[in-house]
Hints:
Blueprint: E1 2-7, H1 12-23, E2 28-34, E3 39-44, H2 48-57, E4 61-64, H3 67-106, H4 121-138, H5 141-151, H6 157-184, H7 188-193, H8 200-224, H9 226-234, E5 238-243, E6 246-251, E7 260-263, E8 272-277, E9 280-283, H10 285-288, E10 294-296, E11 301-302, E12 307-308, E13 313-319, H11 325-338, H12 345-371, H13 376-389, H14 392-412, E14 415-417, H15 420-425, E15 431-435, H16 436-440, E16 446-452, H17 458-469, H18 475-486, E17 495-500, E18 504-509, E19 512-517, H19 519-523, H20 530-541, E20 544-551, E21 554-562, H21 569-578, E22 582-586, H22 591-601, E23 605-607, H23 612-623, E24 628-632, H24 638-643, E25 646-650, H25 655-660, E26 663-665, H26 672-706, H27 710-713, H28 719-738, E27 761-762, E28 767-773, H29 778-789, E29 794-800, E30 805-810, E31 814-815, H30 816-825, E32 829-831
Parallel strand pairs: 15-22, 15-24, 22-23, 24-25, 25-26
Antiparallel strand pairs: 1-3, 1-4, 2-3, 5-6, 5-7, 7-13, 8-11, 8-13, 9-10, 9-12, 14-26, 16-21, 17-18, 18-19, 19-20, 20-21, 27-31, 28-30, 28-32, 29-30
Helix pairs in contact: 1-12, 3-4, 3-8, 4-6, 4-8, 5-6, 6-8, 6-13, 8-28, 9-11, 11-14, 12-13, 12-14, 13-26, 13-28, 14-26, 14-28, 17-18, 20-22, 26-28
Amino acid sequence: MKQFDVTGMSCAACSARVEKAVSKVGGVKSCSVNLLTNSMNVDGTADTAAIISAVEKAGYGASLKGGVQTDKKTVVTDKNEAKGILYRILVSAAILLVLMYFAMGHNMLGLPLPGFFEGNAIAIALLQMIAAAVVMIINGRFFVSGTKGALNRAPNMDTLVALGSGASFVYSVWVIFSMSNHMVNGQAEAAKMLLHELYFESAAMILVLISFGKMLEARAKGRTTDALKGLMDLSPKMATVERGGQTVSVPVEQVVKDDVFQVRPGESIPVDGVVIEGHTSVNESALTGESIPAEKAVGDNVSAATVNGSGFIRCRAVRVGEDTTLSQIIKMVSDAAATKAPIAKIADKVSGVFVPVVMAIAVVSMIVWLAAGYGVGFALERGISVLVISCPCALGLATPVAIMVGNGVGAKHGILFKNATALENTGRVEIMAMDKTGTITKGEPRVTDVLPVDGVGVDELLTMAVSLEEKSEHPLARAIVQYGRQNGTEPYDCNDFEALAGNGVRAVAGDDELLGGSVRFMSANVAVDESVSNSCQALAEDGKTPLLFAVNGKLIGVIAVADEIKPEAVKAVKELELMGIETVMITGDNSRTANAIAAQAGIGKVYAGVLPHEKAGIVKELKKQGKTAMVGDGINDAPALTVADMGIAIGAGTDIAIDAAEVVLMRSALDGVPQAIRLSKAVLRNIKENLFWAFFYNVVGIPLAAGVFYNLMGWRMSPMLGALAMSLSSFCVVTNALRLNLFKVTSAKHFVKHGRTRHDCIADEQSLVLNVEGMMCEHCEARVKKALEGIDGIASAAPDFNTGRVEVAATKRIKQAKLKKAIEKAGYKLKIGE
């Protein structure tokens, strides 16, 4: 995808025109223009020169965008634009005061004039004309842009402003000629009366008020990029690098990969690197939103813009320049803001025809009032009011400003949306599927049991397992290797290592073939006797993962590994449940271990023993039930992340998982998932509010300006009031979007469903796992089973007092309250999503 900076756009009609022109270029698959950032994304094989040429033919300018530095220039441009507009306003306002004194102060309020002007109507009129002309010249950009748009058959907001102001000026000049005619004929009083027909003050006031609105809009737009500017300001300027045996301070831009740099206590880390000496704690809140410092030792990764704590460290540069994590975050936030959300399509369609329709309404309103017997001045006033009150800008800004602010808020909390579509659709998720290892659990399992078979020693089993798993990157393998090292195990060399994701590992040591993996995998490859199966089953019931190992097809033992659940996982699942989102766990682990973990987390549905390629199939099935998101961190999660309606990768995940996802959580904490959903819902709500007010403003304002209510209620809008209303409309939309900065994504009070949710009932022919407290024995199981199966619509209930879970199969929809009542009547307590 190519990104361009576009110049000359002033409203949504402009962006619609650019999109239409570029979309016609051969090789362009899609084109998205963002009015807020004055940028354009083009996907396809079209030549850059052809794209730029199409934009220029449409009457605008374009240049290829270039990385983070370009983003910085864009931010500076916003400030300069506001300053330039302010200068024009101040000069224009000074001249306008003189014009208003002569036009309204004298004519309406009877304020005195200099002697030369007393009784000289022509002189008063000429002074007004000159003052108005000067203001029009100062604000000539409206006329240049408006005329250019009209000539290119793409009228825009500037065209409306230029027509309104220009029509007022031209009509007033015609009145001066009429006044001159009266003066020639000796009709001085008649000429003086025509002073009330002059609209020079309207011609100038329209431009000043709309410029004032543009300044407010530019300033507010500048604030929407505060988060992006904050991220840019985080980037350190200097780095302490070791070169030629000396320590030198160099600009961070001169640091290259593999440079060794030093970071003293309290300093910011200049580039991404890996610690090669020292131990410290690093404040990573700028990137992850996590306030608790992370401990760093030799071998740990550090990121640019994070702050070193109390220790001194030496690091080797791994990613520099625009490859650092900070630069990638800035790029992701900027790119997301440049994309267009699906909800903006309706505004785009309206914007494409808005200006021509408004011009037609202005002409028709003038004709109608003239036909009704009203004077030219009255009819012209109605037409000008229609032109200047109409605002396509508010429509064009309604979506991008909310997207920009929302992305900034997300970045502050370590939540990154790759595009506007992801930001919009995350809040519409109905089912949240999650991987277990590294997502719900810490992904840092530890060995709990080493159980060799008869005739095999513990050391022999452990040595073989460590030797086999040493080359594996799987968290369970690392746990075994770490346990072996702690116990002084000396592994032997293995060759032809092969990792079978989700299944097991295979290698060769001398003449022996080593094999290890899950119960399911090993049972299909070696003989597993009943006693070993029973041991594995008991381990699984305790929430442990049994791994089997064999040499030359003969089983030598079992090593059990347990992975602790993340402390925030229970809270995150509960918050998802409160928002009416169904939680599902998909894991390659055995069903008993998976159910035990799910019970701790409060997850309602479990798919266990799932192979990597099967995860994607399950997600496809879940999508049939509702909009589904998948949360994962590993390579084996990538297919499911891609297939899901929304893929969410956690920060500690692999690059492949992050690439496959639309949302990236910088922290490895599951509570970022409900936070991302709440933020998405807040942004979507804000966009709808903006669109409502943008449409409402035009739907009410245009008829009012056209005089529809004049005969009914006597309501009459002057062009100056119309210009003031137009100038404030875009400002109001942008200001409303800025309210998102006050939204607390960490508060679970937002978007809680108080009525029926997906968990208030069991859908037709659906299986559900209930958490029941108080079951102690088989007798308890029987009581719960009887209570549930006594409910009409429940086909079967299978309680398990060991796990406190009951698998229920229903044939029709049943309210949660009915389930709770039946279980409590039996003497137990129902807990769903707790």
